[in-house]
Amino acid sequence: xxxxxxxxxxxxxxxxxxxxxxxxxxxxxxxxxxxxxxxxxxxxxxxxxxxxxxxxxxxxxxxxxxxxxxxxxxxxxxxxxxxxxxxxxxxxxxxxxxxxxxxxxxxxxxxxxxxxxxxxxxxxxxxxxxxxxxxxxxxxxxxxxxxxxxxxxxxxxxxxxx
Length: 162
Prior knowledge:
Elements: H1 3-7, H2 9-17, H3 24-65, H4 73-89, H5 94-124, H6 139-148
């Protein structure tokens, strides 16, 4: 018997009697059931985000109509404070909730910015063209995707003649 087993006999007992061979079919069925519940929650989250996005469209339209600024840092900070407090009340990590909502705010600001740009481009008839150097997956390509989302098309160019 090793020296450590003499000091901690309960560990030796657990190691020799613990079985990791649980009925794998039973475990798969249980996991499947749990994952189905997660899938339903994911759908609920996405529906709520889509509903929120519809309201952001209303906010963007109002800001465009009233020629208001896109960002309201005071409002954003108030929102994040409420999110942190509510997360704490329901037992969710405050920092996780804040991170999640910072992403949601970033997306909302991006959408409002795109709405404003679209509105301005409609009024003056100009079309914005953006080019980047590199191939699909290059940093500049990823930056275009990040900024413009799905609102851009690609035209491949070889060389500098456009």
